[in-house]
Amino acid sequence: MGKVSAPTMATYSATKFAIIGFTQALRGELAAYNIKVNALLPSLTDIGLWTKLKTTL
Predict the structure, then answer these.
(1) How many distinct structural domains can be found in the chain?
(2) Terminal-residue alpha carbon distance, the chain
(3) What DSSP assignment string belongs to 21-47?
(4) pTM of the prediction?
């Protein structure tokens, strides 16, 4: 998820695409100072957030 968009995940995918673009731009700007920039894109994980929210509301 993130580098390839998926149905029903538009916001999530758009955010990941934005992070990649920002990282690439920042990498180019800071290369002259020998500063390396990387992005870490963890995979989608089910943490049970919605279940926990539903039980507390």
Answers:
(1) 1
(2) 29
(3) HHHHHHHHHHGGGT-------PPP---
(4) 0.62
